[in-house]
Amino acid sequence: MNVEEALDGKRICICGGSGGVGKTTTAAAIAMGVAAEGKKVAVVTIDPARRLANSLGLEELGNEPHLVDSKLFEAAGLPMKGELWAMMLDPKRTFDEVIEQLAPDEKTRDDVLGNRIYQQLSSAVAGSQEYTAIAKLYELDREHDFDLLVLDTPPSRNALDFLDAPDRLTQFFEGRALQVFLRPTGLAARVMGRGTGMVFGVLKRVTGVDLLQDLSVFFRAIGGMIDGFKERAVQVNKLLADPQTVFLLVTSPEREPIDEAIYFWRKLKAARMPFGGVIVNRVHHDLLGDAEPGDVAAELSGELGEKLAERVAENFRDYHVLAERDRRNIERLEAKLARPRVITIPYLDEDVHDIEGLTRIHRFLFATDEQRRDLLDAVVA
Amino acid sequence: MAALLDKRLVFVTGKGGVGKSTVALALGLLAARRGLRTIVAEVAHQDRVARVFGRDDSHFREVELADDLYTISIDPQHAIEEYLRLQLPVKALADVLWSSRMFQYFAAATPGMSELVTIGKVWELAQLERRTRDAARYDLVIVDAPATGQGVATMRAPKTFADIARVGPIANQGRAIHAMITDPESTGVVAVALPEEMPVNETLSLRDSLRSELGLGLDRVVVNGVYEQRFSGRDATALRRASETAATPTARAAVRAALSAHLRARGQREQVARLAEGTGDAPVLLPFLFQGDLDLPAYERLSEQLEAEL
Q1: Global pTM?
Q2: How far is the C-alpha of A292 from the C-alpha of B253, rounded, in Å?
Q3: Is a pLDDT exceeding 70 seen at residue A60?
Q4: ∠ CA A353-A358-A359 to the nearest 5 degrees?
Q5: Which phi and psi angles does A249 have, rounded to 5°?
Q6: Strand pairing of B69-73 and B63-66?
Q7: Pick from A228, A230, A262: which is nearest to A333 by CA?
Q8: What stretch of H or E contains B66?
Q9: Minimal Cα–Cα distance from A23 to chain B, Å?
Q10: CB distance from A51 to chain B under 8 Å?
């Protein structure tokens, strides 16, 4: 399989996986590859490496995609027939925009934006990045005419956070948490009036009154937007489960990221979200075959001298340990996936930090299985 | 580093995937070897430390792994229940609150509450006089903290809540916790990085946000997965020549792997230099271990390396 097949007929591509596995560069390389074929593509990155961001011209502020100069790709040897748009997500600003869109009036908007509990929620709390990434995706899908949107997801340790973000927020608004605060005899009323209930009395004792007051202002203000949030979450869920959406998992071949990828795949399956395949970055392919590293030392000692040849063999032995590890982990991944759809990308000599680097992984992503084997031989030999 | 182990509370943080847990455990092994009663606290539902010892029962329980080495996996749900019981010594009152749906919703709905109770539990573990009954006292609490951005947010939660609450129990405790974690005498922060661009950037921005938001400095930076420098520039020249002439595919592959290792090691050295320049301090370097999964002997090795480098 390759990325082109996985993206056939798709409008939205979400790249998931644990932190530090090359998710951002993979997302960027995918978007670039599809754009090069003549499509209008946007990639939403969460936290790109500075050099990569700079090379895509992302250093400017702004929470909207902007067009990357096509000359940059041509300079790196990739003719750009379409358009690549890129943006860096600003979670706080995206959250504020959602509030602005959903607030029924200016006062409610200002009450929420000025509330300290909200400020905490929108900037620092676990889950806010997940929620805003999806909110941005939804907005881009609705208000622009991209052929394909590629989303790089936050480096959640827990894949669950990301998939559940819209639902969790809906549950929060539907749940009795808010109702407790909002109904006429609810907590908010009691905080404002004279609280007499036993639970309230105890709660006050634990938290202090000021905190309860800030909370009730927050809940009351945001309560006016419940329907808006709910409606939005329904739409977002529809978008995630849409047949034109696809999830690609990105991982490295170490045990823990592979475990996460398997876990994420199970979650996708359980939630009936469309799964497109797994991209395994930084793979040490087996270069040794049936040979012995010792033979290598003997063979090279004439050319390199005995000492250097021995170090080359020793390095090769170490490399082979990692190749073995990677092979075992990838086999485990393939055994779990009902239909193995795995693309492996070799461990390249340098990290990807510019458009030229993107073109190096791009070749592997978009090659057929056969072409990929040839590419690998070329890299190796 | 002796100074680091003299503290009561050490946060180990860094970008996702850089090996925070590895360093937290290696540090724990080192502290325990020195006779400090040490607990490694995990906060992300992972029970990773316990698993290295073949245990899986550290869920909100303080589990003894070896002499002087303990672990606990902290989750917010348990932490909040415990907090409530400590706060309301009259058991009946705590029960009323805990079983009231209103409180459950309140706890689940309040942004930042999980972070607050998590750090509260960490603080409680580090107290000389433990608040939980029959609990033992630790000389050192090592926190395998959440990834960088979230880590600072967690550490800042007590202050945020103290500011919002102004008066009352949460305000008082928030201030007490904040005072401890911003006191360099009692609290240290270790940043973990890999010798790659992104983790180095993140370490430098962690240093900035720790300073601006908590007034704390980084005590040490540890770089994981550093390749030894096997090949010199002159070796590389010879290798490049050999890559043209080597007779068999295997020999070519071996030469290629050597050149690749040379380039990788050079790239790593550049990143380590950038990190050292950015922080103004030479980081502690831990070697890349060429093996499948890390086992206890591997952690011991890293812990010895840590000791030698400190």
Answers
A1: 0.86
A2: 12
A3: no
A4: 140
A5: -95, 140
A6: antiparallel
A7: A262
A8: strand B63-66
A9: 12
A10: yes
Ordered mean pLDDT values, 10 residues apiece, chain B (310 residues): 84 87 96 96 80 83 93 88 76 69 64 82 89 82 81 84 80 91 94 91 90 92 95 94 86 91 94 95 94 88 91
Could you give phi then psi for residue B287, rounded to 5 degrees?
A: -75, 150
Provide φ and ψ at B162, rounded to 5°.
-60, -40
Amino acid code (one letter) for B114: S
Taking only residues 49 to 78 of chain B, the set having a beta carbon closer than 8 angstroms to any beta carbon of chain A reads: none
Q: Is A257 on the interface with B (CB under 8 A)?
A: yes
Are B258 and A205 an interchain contact pair (Cβ–Cβ within 8 Å)?
no
- Please give the pLDDT value at position A174: 59
What token pair was written down for A128?
């806010």
Pairing between β-strand A245-251 and β-strand A148-152 as defined by DSSP bridges? unpaired
Query: Could you give the 3-state DSSP secondary structure of residue B62?
Result: coil
Cβ separation of A208 and B255 shorter than 8 Å?
Answer: no
Spatial distance between the Cα atoms of A252 and B163, rounded to a whole number of angstroms: 42
Residue A177 has pLDDT above 60, yes or no: no
Q: What is the CA radius of gyration of chain A?
A: 25
Considering only CB atoms, which chain A residues are within 8 Å of B212? none
Q: Which token pair is B284?
A: 């502690």
Q: At what angle do helices A306-336 and B249-279 cross, to 10 degrees?
A: 90
What are the DSSP calls for B181-236, one per residue? HT-TTTEEEEEEE-SSHHHHHHHHHHHHHHHHHH----SEEEEEEEPP----HHHH
- Separation CA A247–CA A276 (nearest Å): 6
- Say if residue B79 is exposed, middle or buried (CB neighbours under 10 Å; 0-12, 13-18, 19+): buried
Whole-number Å distance between alpha carbons of A280 and A332? 13
Predicted confidence band of residue A335 (pLDDT cuts 50, 70, 90): very high
Per-residue pLDDT averaged across A233-251, rounded?
90
Extended beta strands in chain A, E state: 12-16, 40-45, 66-67, 83-88, 148-152, 245-251, 275-283, 342-346
CA distances from B32 to B39, B66, B186 (A): 9, 8, 18
Could you tell me whether strands A12-16 and A148-152 are parallel, antiparallel, or unpaired per DSSP bridges? Answer: parallel
Phi, psi torsion values for B221, nearest 5 degrees: -115, 130
Centre a 10 Å sphere on the Cβ of residue B172 and count the other Cβ atoms it contains: 13
Q: Report whether A379 contacts A346 (CB < 8 A).
A: yes
**What CA–CA distance (Å, rounded) separates B240 from B121?**
57
pLDDT digits (tens, 9 = 90+) for A272-293: 889 999 999 999 988 877 777 7
pLDDT at A154 > cutoff 80: no
